[in-house]
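Handout, tutorial session.
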Amino acid sequence: MSDAVVPDLIERMLEAGFYPHGVREPVELIQTHVSYVLLTGEFAYKVKKSVNFGFLDYSTLEKREHFCRQELEMNKRGAPELYLEVLPISQDNGKFVLGGSGEAVEYVLKMRQFPQDVLLSEMFEHGRLTEAQMEELGRVVALYHANAQSSDLIRSFGEVAQVRQAIDENYEQTTKYIGGPQSQAQYDETKHYTDSFFDERSQLFSSRIQNNFIRECHGDLHLRNICLWQDKILLFDCIEFNEPFRFVDVMYDVAFTVMDLQARQCPEFGNAFLNTYVEQTGDWEGLQVLPLYLSRQAYVRAKVTSFLLDDPGVPAQVKEEAKATAADYYKLAWEYTKPHQGRLILMSGLSGSGKSTTAKHLARKLDAIVIRSDAVRKHLGGIALSERGGDELYTPEMTQKTYDRLLQLGVMLASQGFTVILDAKYDRTDLRMNAIDMADFQQIPLQIIHCNAPIEVLKERLQQRRGDIADATADLLESQIAASDAFTPAEQPYVRSLDTSQPIAAQLTKI
């Protein structure tokens, strides 16, 4: 269908009589640079424009049909309730007919319409988004990635040359904005970081491929493409038109959401989402590539916003706003490349002493990664986090393996600039001293936060615990007390004690 005919079709689709069902008048039209979306009340209809941007090609009827069907199938992964069917549009005596039996002149994607105020972006803007919902999003995205396809072809997109090509292209397309929203120094330093990352860390990319973390992902996972509809989080509008944009490391998707929240000045929500995701997947090693993808996603937002500065149809005031927005994203992309001093925080205390609650509170304030021994133990044992572990999960050998893995992950991430909280009992001197010695050897600052509360409080907490991955019960407290080692003089300088039966915020501020 020619560009001249498309507006004729859209004019017809704005009429209530075009549809075989009742509509809410007037039919509303939303137009983007690649599609027309018509809102009828119960249903939304998307018509792809006849455009070719190189990375996106809808220039023929055959391609538009193909990508309509591709969009339908791919979005059923994250939002099956929203994506319904692809319908042909034919012409009968010069009139456009939806779902007609004649020769198709266009194709349309039919979707369930939902109110805009259920978008996570809208919920955030109106103060209705919660930390608990961000934790649930972490679980939803973890399951989405667990079910995502992979193959030799898909994994090949994780090779350095493939990843680097897309990032280098961003730099090439934004040199014209240096001296405008982008500074020369920021440009040079951001590019130097990614160049060095690719040159020095090729083995990291190889391990991501070998461990099957390159999958058919969403590709555009920001808050405007996530909604909470009918009490369920749905991921929609994934990238259907370009394989390199969706055959990516799972951390590429995760980074988009985290970056979006940090750009909105809400790192606490990003931290809640990220920690839940990595705990569910056990992919703490993937955090090593996170800074690269955080910078990439911020840079892409800067680039796309910068393009508005070249559009003669954009009003001057809008261009000024776009310039400021682009500048903020360029700065954020640069900030992600800056080195940070990592550190380790060991939680210590009996079951029910408030270690995990305190660790979560600290993580939100420090933007720290929390690694819980309960999660590490179950990942090592190959059981779901929600499943109760048997005796084989709590042998001395498995406990040692769990603490070894905890420390290995903590040192790896802290040495790369993360603040890492290891959430475990750390009730034995040898376990604590092993961490202290390793941190000292790696020149990583370390602190031990010892949580305690009256025994009656511990028992009550454990008896009331519901829906947590920890398996400990109140009857284990006596044996835990008997097996715990007091802090030695060598450990005391690292230890700060916390009475979790009292408000913890003020105590943590002093720490």
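The second record follows below. Compare its token runs with those of the first.
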Amino acid sequence: MIKFSIKIKWTLFIVLLLIVTITFTGFFMLKGVLANQMAYYEELLRENSKIANLYIRETYISSDSDNFEEFYVREAENLVLNLKRIIHLPIAMYDMEGQILFSGGNISVDRQPPNIMIDALKDQCVYEEYGNEIVYLAPIYDFDKQIGVIKITYSAERESIFYKDIKLLFYKISIVSICIASLIGIVYFSKIAENISRLKYSVEAIEQGDYDSIVKLDSQDELGDLREGVFFMAKTIKQNIEDITTEKEKLELAVKKLQKLEKQQKEFIGNITHEFKTPLTVLKAQIDLISLYRDDEDMACRSKKIAEKELKRLDAMVENILSLSRVEKYDFEFKREKINTKKLLNDICLRMEGKASKFGIKIIENLQDAYIFIDAESFMQIFINLIDNAIKYNVRNGQIYIRSYIKEDKNHIQIEDTGIGIPREHREKIFEPFYTVDKNRSKNFSGTGIGLSLVKNLVENQSGIISLVDTKKSTCFEIVFPLYNEERKCRIK
């Protein structure tokens, strides 16, 4: 019922639109034909009146007459007959009183309306239609003034037949066009109405909770898009229902995650408190010793050295915590630029050679030229931290291998030492703040457990990846940065 109704409405709309269009087109077209015919009549009759005037003047000049008006009245018959042979139209001549002088055709004098003749006698060209005849009146002149009126009758029967034929042909074409448009409209809109009915069926299926019975449409227009929208809506509703059924599990998981985060926060605060408390306790003890043994210079000197060492450790801890906080919150302060990693790594190794040589450790470089887009200060901080750790946790007279190479449009950089390595059970936690594998050893080297966490944050903020490479004994960190290109530079900026 709905399909049939839509089909009829759309078809009637198209037919009515076509009728209105044809009506307006036909009206102005036929009006244009009439205007064109009238312009042709006027031009033809105007030219013929000029020919008549010229002929009358030439005839007068070649005659022996001295008076143009007398010549015009006397020779009216000959003039009319000769002009009729020239212009091939019925002609009549009148004097200035409106009286006919001679008629060269079947022209009824009493058919002439007085107003037309009056206008013609006032030096005007006028015409009027009588059925298929056009009566044209034009003034006749001597060399100075008007001396009479010439009447030319034109039969427009042929043009009238042509106009009627055009009008009839237009009606026939209009009727055929409307019939064809109606048939095409019925066929075309039947398909559209059928697609709408299918969409209605799909919507009803969704209302009943059946989200998989969405019919397909062979349509590449807005109806096809609407079907895709209905299909997407059905999938979304189905997915939402499935999500609602599992909401309880997700909420429980979210609660567990929150509890875990709360626990991590407490551990983080506890670690900060513990790590701060240790150097502060040592400082307090050394200050007490200095107060108790003021006269013992050796004791005061030892206490002072220990206090200085703990102050440096506390200062490093505070600085690392501040750096970690800045990395997490103030990424916009990075000044990225194009750098050569080989050149920068050479510079870092030169800086760290002094500290490495104290423990007999040799830094071995195997570097390839590679350009990346990064904050140079962050790059320096990353690898100074990693090389410093490689020195701290290495064996005496050990080696540190620094390798840099390009693979799959990425710069791979490895820092490997010959130390005791990191046990497998600790590898997942080494990037957590305040986490150290060997507490006692880290204290000996003023470790805070923040360095690797800071390094990880710096690497990730520079679009890099850091990971611990599996080795049998040694410790090897691998950092991967994307190579420099203009497209990435514009995207980051």
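Points raised in discussion: The first helix runs from residue 2 to 62.
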